[in-house]
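Design review, sub-item: ligand-bound model
Attendees: FS, YL, KQ
YL presented the inputs for the FE2/S2 (inorganic) cluster complex:
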Amino acid sequence: MTVKLTVNSQVHDVDAEPDTPLLWVLRDLLGMVGTKYGCGVAQCGACTVHLDGTPVRSCVTSLSRAASRQVTTIEGVGADPVGARVQEAWKAVDVPQCGYCQAGQIMSATALLHAAPRPTDEEIDAAMNGNLCRCATYLRIRKAIKAASGQVEA
Amino acid sequence: MDARMIDRVPTDLSRRLFLRAGAAAGGGLLLSFGLPGLGRAADETLGGPFEAFVRIAPDGLVTIAAKRPEIGQGIKTSMPMLIAEELDVDWAKVRIEQSPIDAKVFGEQSAGGSTSTPDDWEPMRQVGATGRAMLIAAAAQRWKVPAVGLTTEPGFVVDRAGGRRASYAELAQAAAALPAPDPKTLVLKDPKTYRIIGKAQRQSDTPAIVEGKPLYGIDVRVPGMLYATFLKAPVFAAKVAKVDLAPAKAVKGVRHAFVVDGGSELEGLLGGVVVVADTWWAARKGRNALEVTWAEHPTSAQGSASFAAKAAELHGQPPHRNVRTVGDPKAALAGAAKVVQADYSYPFNAHATLEPQNCTASFKDGKVEIWAPAQNPEDGRELVAKTLGIKPEDITIHFTRSGGGFGRRLMNDFMVEAAWISKVVGAPVKLLWTREDDMQHDFYRPAGWHRLSAGLDAKGEVVAWRNHFVSFGEGERFVRAAGMNATQFPYGAVPNYALDVSVMPLGVPTGWLRAPGNNAYGFVLQGFTDEVAHAAGEDPVAFRRRLLGEPRLIGEPGKGDSFHTGRMRGVLDLVAEKSGWGRALPKGVGLGVACHYSHRGYVAVVMEVAVSEGQVKVRKAWAAVDVGSQIVNPNGAEQQVQGSVLDGIGSTLGQAITIENGAVTQSNFGDFPLLRLADAPEVEVHFRITDNPPTGLGEPALPPSPAALVNAIFAATGKRIRSLPIGDQLA
Ligand code: FES
Ligand code: FES
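KQ shared the predicted structure:
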């Protein structure tokens, strides 16, 4: 079945079952592999993308649910000025270790800064606690969010 | 224990390497080194893939190869820094490429045991210095002046007296025609003049990571590639008894479903069912449609509870064997004024790299090409060759970046699986494990049980120390990563000492987890040391100072398991100072200290915790680290120390792998909790620079972390944690 899917402002014709998770549509059908698989059951946040600006776990978001919305992934988040600022802060602070979780971290952080332009520590905790980092880059994640929101120097 | 991975003595490559230089295919200078006897004929033209450490193109672009796999430890940046420093180039203009896998050119290409820095510190700088010497020689020829009068500035050879300069780009072609200098004639830079080493450099892949570029094994795509999933038996090495493959084959997109018979070696190809499809999701749907009956297996009765019961039984019996005895610990304990005894234990633990195991393979005409997030690909080559019955030289392996390693990817089971599947289906295949596969088919940090006794004399001196360690193995042999070296402190610092061992058999795959062995011994030995300090009525830092005693080397100079008490004293004093050790704290808040030596690094950690209503909160951690005379990349070094300390907190709080009926009960992050952002305290990192060869940082900051945490909990609450994880023990 062919479904129209808008990813990073580009419309794609996707031939897949409607219950296929968005994660695998992005990775295997569209070849956009920046969005990562970590757990498959909404327990790690590695697969986080935006649906109409709201962060969702693409591993448990069906193609049919995504089809009528704007999907934003790590490959396109830089087109949003807030997303671009978050990416710049991530580079300046040099957040990644292995880096595997970071696409999801950046997507969650960008959504946070849209909701709270100068987030407090508690707001950062609440927004980012579902994004696991096995390398435990958390201190730099916190710092980069504060840098992107102009609260500290990178 | 595999000595290769634990405190491996660095091989002095510098004495054995020869340097090669040649013309790059597109002009310019290529520079590499190899091991005598393995190198190709010196006059062979270099070219093709980037088979060299350094390439200086005629347009001035300097490319430096990173020869070891990047797993998040920062090696892809720090080792090229060594070359760039001695070559004397502008770091901002250097491009870094992951090298191909070729032992003839690059020598050792694994990542494990924190050995990269000690092993590569000298040879990588020599590679850079060779290039610089040849560029200077080329300039000397051009200007017809002696080379000794020339020097370099980043990217240029400079003739101060003659008032002229030439760029490396201009000189590269001529330099390539010169013979490589004798490594013995190279003069390395005075560290005081370093422009790159010792300065915080950003990790080279960071921009690509942040932009979501394909870098990882899971991101590999090759033309015509299919996707595979492999369902293995929950009981390790059990085989398929019965399965109907039709339901999987009926799923749209599924191309193949077949049974793998598999062998009995836990690190090799095991039995199970493979489903291959056009997308991974289709393969997974096919797999979910299967009902497999697994054959009975001899290990299906084993479980964590019975292991613990057996350990208790073994502790009640004379040990199977003595590993080391100094003096007469039995008599000393009998005559001691005070004896402290305690049992410590820790569970199996998983690596849980965030990128699940995966591998892409393309088998064609008896040859196989492999793309793998691997830490030790040469072992994988052997395994694939043996299992598929092909020649090692018919296997080409490409490194990808790894989404975490922690020792998991030193094993190559995923590599042999992908190669096998590709051979069966006759197409390139990407094999991707589910998180559940990853959690249930790891090579686990082995569980262990220690019965410790310490004797104090009337003055509070430790006169005896004994450890009866119960582990897994048979006879004299331990299973992988389950052994313990007899030289763990306080060996050599107490007059009467014994390490005894008893073992039981195990049918669970085990392996090296970040700071193998030490990640557990640090907890056991430094936790117990704290108990002994309290029994002696002494402050835990003061007691450790006294136990360390005079600065001296215990063991043989140059050996990985030798231990310098003065270096440990240095980091202990530093962390005590930085953490404000001894300051007054409110009720329910405590400071804990631990110091541990591993992988040639000396690390002391202090943690401040608050415990209320059974919940522990780490408020802050301080780490003091001595890894020698030079921190190569202070940026990466801070990341490794912070990450290791936090890793230790995460595993101590809640991680355990439990075995029931021969299989792992945990399946995903819901029952195997990783540390989360809100629970990550600030970690203040301090380096103590000492006049010792630089050593690695991927591991040594982890081992003191668990003990610092449980010792802080004791300080806050009076409750002693002797069994990991903490779980609900404070409730
Ligand atoms: S892969 Fe979706 S939350 Fe983990
Ligand atoms: S950087 Fe490795 S998982 Fe986050």
